[in-house]
Automatic annotation (TrEMBL):
Principal localisation: membrane
Keyword annotations: Membrane, Transmembrane, Transmembrane helix
UniProt protein name: Membrane protein
Compartments it resides in: Membrane
GO molecular function: transferase activity, transferring alkyl or aryl (other than methyl) groups
Membrane protein topology class: Multi-pass membrane protein
Top-rank taxon, per record: Bacteria
UniProt xrefs under InterPro entries: UbiA_prenyltransferase, UbiA_sf
Residues that span the membrane, as ranges: 21-51, 94-125, 137-156, 204-225, 231-252, 264-284
A GO CC term attached to the entry: membrane
Length: 285
């Protein structure tokens, strides 16, 4: 095998293991919200680097830690099982990305940097242990909520995030967690993973995921002061439709990954709605 072929295999493995699509969505949403809050381009760039490398570290650490389980159940879509790279390579990549994340996060300032690093630590804790427990939802609630805290604290002026905005972000995170777990329930259970969705079962989790997403949309609509604008009602209706579609697909196609994509769509719409209410999501302390 030529060095060029090896490099391409390595690059393909790193991209696959990074969980690139959700990582890009989360990073893009954080940057977009920062821009909507009036952060300068320097801050937006730092948030993009901090969140992006944090997401890379989480994705790579997930496939590194899960490699023995993936091999045990023959998940050939995973790059380690497919022979594209080794678990050790993923470990080194995850630690390198984490180092960059720490520097970029702290460059935002002590408070926003600490908030983001705790969010990343929560995601690592999920990968390392919590995904196998009934508390599997907690890192998602913590990390998504703290990501909103980080972006607001990094914005200009002495402002803190409104509680309802943090709650909405946390609900979106837990909803995405449940939706993302559904296709792999049986494979996970075979290797001892017993997170909250596994304990609830496919039917219970299939109902819970869209319900959480709909509640998140309701919080985003009800949180800002005053009546929602027409654009907010339209966006909210779109988000609710996406959430309900995620539930319907879960029932019709249990192993489909579309519900997770639809939940990311709900998150995109909700961030757009938050951008319409920047005066209400960042308030004076």
């Amino acid at each position: 095998m030529t060095s060029g072929t090896e490099a391409r295999r390595l690059a393909r493995g790193l991209v696959t293991a990074s969980h690139a699509a959700p990582a890009a969505v989360v990073t893009g949403l954080a940057a977009a919200l920062a821009a909507a809050l009036g952060s300068g381009w320097g801050t937006v760039a730092l948030i993009t680097v901090a969140v992006g490398t944090g997401q890379l570290s989480v994705g790579w650490s997930n496939d590194w830690i899960d490699a023995p389980r993936d091999v045990a159940v023959g998940r050939t879509e995973k790059p380690v099982v497919a022979g594209l790279l080794t678990a050790r390579t993923l470990r080194d990549a995850a630690l390198a990305a984490l180092a960059v994340c720490v520097v970029a996060s702290l460059a935002l300032g002590l408070a926003p940097g600490a908030a983001h690093l705790v969010a990343v630590a929560g995601a690592w804790a999920y990968n390392a242990r919590l995904k196998t427990t009934a508390w599997s939802w907690l890192p998602y609630a913590l990390s998504f909520g703290l990501l909103a805290v980080c972006v607001v604290l990094a914005a200009p002026g002495p402002r803190v995030p409104a509680g309802w905005a943090v709650a909405a972000a946390a609900l979106l995170g837990v909803g995405a967690h449940v939706a993302n777990t559904l296709p792999d329930l049986e494979d996970d259970a075979a290797t001892g993973v017993r997170g909250l969705p596994h304990r609830l079962g496919r039917r219970g989790s299939g109902i819970l995921a869209p319900c959480l997403l709909v509640v998140a949309v309701a919080v985003v609509l009800a949180g800002p002061a005053g009546a929602p604008r027409p654009a907010s009602w339209i966006g909210g209706a779109v988000a609710v439709c996406l959430a309900l579609a995620a539930g319907a697909v879960t029932v019709a196609r249990p192993r489909s990954r579309a519900p997770f994509g639809l939940s990311m769509g709900v998150a995109v719409v909700c961030v757009a709605l938050l951008a319409l209410a920047t005066a209400d999501i960042a308030v004076a302390p």
